[in-house]
UniProtKB/TrEMBL annotation:
InterPro entries: Acnase/IPM_dHydase_lsu_aba_1/3, Acoase/IPM_deHydtase_lsu_aba, Aconitase/3IPM_dehydase_swvl, Aconitase/IPM_isomerase, Aconitase_4Fe-4S_BS, Aconitase_4Fe-4S_dom, Aconitase_dom2, Aconitase_mito-like. Gene3D superfamilies: Aconitase, Domain 2, Aconitase, domain 3, Aconitase, domain 4. Binds 1 [4Fe-4S] cluster per subunit. PROSITE patterns: ACONITASE_1, ACONITASE_2. Its main location: mitochondrion. Residues 571-700 form the Aconitase A/isopropylmalate dehydratase small subunit swivel domain. Catalyzes the isomerization of citrate to isocitrate via cis-aconitate. This is Aconitate hydratase, mitochondrial. It comes from Gasterosteus aculeatus aculeatus (three-spined stickleback).
Length: 768
């Protein structure tokens, strides 16, 4: 039998071909069948008659109907059977509320909930964790009991960040996992297809319904040469983001390949895949290799890698496979990068950032350096950062900037404490925060600058949208590797290039930092730390899940109204959004995270960060019934109360960033009918469809300019809504004139049924 990971089930492997592999910490033992995937791949390869990319093998290997499925990259919708589901606590609340209202007794695939988003960084790890447990007691209790009731594993607060836990326990080569967080692709570092989705998609999979994904294009990134010196895995994705931009990966899986791959550690590959979310990619993946095998063995899953070895051909791309686009990067020539401010695709070599910052008036003083997060909190990351901190300490120096350290998991925290890294990082001035998302998602009670005060921070995170980390729109946030963050925190300035510049010790000695070093994995085994996992009980009929009607944190869901069967006439424009509009703009996180389980309360943040083209202001729109200006949610509520339907008009890549489906639930809840934009980010477009809204795009992006904020808009053609057939917008201007233009959509037949039923959940109930 196999004994895998902590607390795993033991069971018998009959033959390598039908080897079923159990995952740790899940009962009943989840199993994947490499043999089944192998059969599916062969069926599809025979049908397509061509070599397959790695991502195609794993995606098509999970088809519901490999023999009959229409497969065309970038065009057809695939019906897939993912192996498991993972949810973080901020999105799990809404996912579980939707699952409860589906009426199903138990999840159909192995699923887990991870408590990582609701812990605010304030003082330090233990204190912040204790405070979070008190403040969020009602939500944690709901998630723990709902998990137990419906057969879901529950990782308690303090266990770590969802993506790190998945890498340590659940990801493995060839698995297909969906997660309710946009950085789920982190698992690609272990050769997995891990895709970020909204909660409604997770509900489909947990309900045992095939999950739909538009057949992804495949972008190949060929790596040659080898990493060395100050260059880190993070620099690969910082460079790729600069090349492909925040929308360049939309609708595609990014597949890394080539001889350079073997010079990157398994956790380094995960870092690269994690931040692939910032280019809009569906996911990213690396081919199975010895670095993954070693990581699996170190994390108690050697038995899985032994079986993976036998199916290695299914876990690497075919020779001669074709990519839709190829980017080539020579790792031997790649230099350390730093991206920002305000967008993760503004890439600069570290050697040039000082001059660029001076030219643009970006503050040079680094106020805070922050390392860790789901992107960069591995044992290797912490070791390399500590190797730099030790050089400073040895010369009597501490960080000039404030310095924070976020361990990715309880296992990482315990291991870096045992091995001395944590002490070095705190001795140099670092504060070790809780094993949680913390400042990366805006859970940071920052005190050192006032709101509106211009300042610079450098982080090893993945995202740096305006006000994301600290709710201060004047904070210039830059993302880079943990090594560069540590060096800049020691020097205290953005124009410090550690490859060429000297530091001055307290005794006046000038010295250069030597390039960072660190072990990929601990020489002793990982220390698992405290046990923070709750198994779902075998028998759960006696478990009660309580939601108080008077709660301001949780609210049971009421079904949305169904389509009335006619065209939408004379709708108001709630807001015409100017420029970048991420899900942070549509439904801010930070202090609003506490309302993620209460749709009506969280709807008070709808679009309060979006810029109104009418007046260049945020959260100030004209109420066309009263003639007065008000906040966006207030005007939406007023329209809804008066029976007036409304739409939002937006710009390019609308809804980029987080997978939070609240950005779709809120407009639906407050009376919205359509979101009309130049282009959408993938997850947000699907989330809007799931909730019964119409995500529509201008056939001609210039038609955006025709719409005036006081227009009335009608959408015709809904009675004959069908795949590939545009709808028509008719706008009536206040001067009595009117014009019309076509609007495109990407609805397929199934999704049209969601729209007619009022939501995907309503449709699921109709079919039961």
């Amino acid at each position: 039998g196999l004994a895998l990971g902590t607390g795993a089930r033991r069971f018998h492997v009959s033959s390598a071909f039908s080897a079923k592999v159990a995952m740790s910490r899940f009962e009943p033992a989840s199993s994947v069948n490499y043999g089944k995937m192998h059969e599916n791949i062969n069926i599809v390869r025979r049908r397509l008659g061509r070599p397959l990319t790695l991502s195609e093998k794993i995606v098509y290997g999970h088809l519901d109907d490999p023999a009959g499925q229409d497969i065309e990259r970038g065009r057809t919708y695939l019906r897939l059977r993912p192996d498991r589901v993972a949810m973080q606590d901020a999105t799990a609340q809404m996912a579980m509320l939707q699952f409860i209202s589906s009426g199903l007794p138990r999840v159909a695939v192995p699923s887990t909930i991870h408590c990582d988003h609701l812990i605010e960084a304030q003082i330090g790890g233990p204190e912040d964790l204790q405070r979070a447990k008190e403040v969020n007691e009602e939500v944690y209790n709901f998630l723990a009991t709902a998990a137990a009731k419906y057969g879901v594993g529950f990782w308690k607060p303090g266990s770590g960040i969802i993506h790190q836990i998945i890498l340590e326990n659940y990801a493995y080569p060839g698995v297909m996992l969906i997660g309710t967080d946009s950085h789920t692709p982190n698992g690609g570092g272990l050769g997995s297809i891990c895709i970020g989705v909204g909660g409604a998609d997770a509900v489909d999979v947990m309900a045992g319904i095939p999950w739909e994904l538009k057949c992804p294009n495949v972008i190949g990134v060929k790596l040659t040469g080898a990493l060395s010196g100050w260059t880190s895995p993070k620099d690969v994705i910082l460079k790729v983001a600069g090349i492909l931009t925040v929308k360049g990966g939309t609708g595609a899986i990014v597949e890394y390949h080539g001889p350079g791959v073997d010079s990157i550690s398994c956790t380094g590959m995960a870092t690269i895949c994690n931040m692939g979310a910032e280019i809009g990619a569906t996911t990213s993946i690396f081919p199975y290799n010895h670095r993954m095998k070693t990581y699996m063995e170190k994390t108690g899953r050697g038995e899985i890698s032994a079986v993976a070895d036998q199916f290695k051909e299914d876990l690497v791309p075919d020779n001669g496979c074709e990519y839709d686009q190829v980017v080539e990067i020579n790792l031997s020539e790649l230099k350390p990068h730093i991206n920002g401010p305000f967008t993760p695709d503004l890439a600069h070599p570290v050697s040039e950032i000082g001059a660029t910052a001076k030219k643009n008036g970006w503050p040079l003083e680094v106020k805070v350096g922050l390392i860790g997060s789901c992107t960069n909190s591995s044992y290797e990351d912490m070791g390399r950062a500590a190797s730099l901190a030790k050089q400073a300490l040895d010369r009597g120096m501490k960080c000039k900037a404030q310095f924070t350290v976020t361990p990715g998991s309880e296992q990482i925290r315990a291991t870096i404490e045992r091995d001395g890294y944590a002490k070095i990082l705190s001795d140099v001035g670092g504060i070790v925060l809780a094993n949680a998302c913390g400042p990366c998602i805006g859970q940071w009670d920052r005190k050192d600058v006032k709101k509106g005060e211009k300042n610079t921070i450098v982080t090893s995170y993945n995202r740096n949208f305006t006000a994301r980390n600290d709710a201060n729109p004047a904070t210039h946030a830059f993302v880079t590797s943990p090594e560069i963050v540590t060096a800049m925190a020691i020097a205290g300035t953005l124009d410090f290039n550690p490859e060429t510049d000297f530091l001055t010790a307290p005794n006046g000695e000038k010295f250069k930092l030597e390039a960072p070093t660190g072990d990929e994995l601990p020489s002793k085994d990982f220390d698992p730390g405290q046990d923070t996992y709750q198994y779902p009980p075998a028998e759960s009929s006696s478990v009660m899940v309580n939601v108080s009607p008077s709660s301001n944190r949780l609210q049971l869901l009421e079904p949305f109204d169904k389509w009335q069967g006619k065209d939408l006439e004379d709708m108001r424009i709630l807001i015409k959004v100017k420029g970048k509009c991420t899900t942070d703009h549509i439904s801010a996180a930070g202090p609003w995270l506490k309302f993620r389980g209460h749709l009506d309360n969280i709807s008070n943040n709808m679009l309060i960060g979006a810029v109104n083209i009418d007046n260049d202001a945020v959260n100030k729109v004209k109420n066309l019934l009263t003639g007065e200006f008000g906040g966006v949610p207030d005007v939406a509520r007023h329209y809804k109360a008066n029976g007036v339907n409304w739409v939002v008009v937006g710009d390019e890549n609308y809804g980029e960033g987080s997978s939070r489906e609240h950005a779709a639930l809120e407009p639906r809840h407050l009376g919205g009918r359509a979101i009309i934009v130049k282009s959408f980010a993938r997850i947000h477009e699907t989330n809007l469809k799931k909730q019964g809204l119409l995500p529509l795009t201008f056939a001609d992006p210039k038609d955006y300019d025709k719409i005036r904020p006081d227009d009335k808009i009608s959408i015709s053609g809904l009675k004959s809504l069908s795949p590939g057939k545009p709808l028509t917008a008719v706008i009536k201007h206040s001067d009595g004139s009117q014009e019309s233009f076509p609007l495109n959509h990407t609805f397929n037949e199934t999704q049209i049924d969601w729209f007619k039923a009022g939501s995907a959940l309503n449709r699921m109930k109709q079919l039961q």
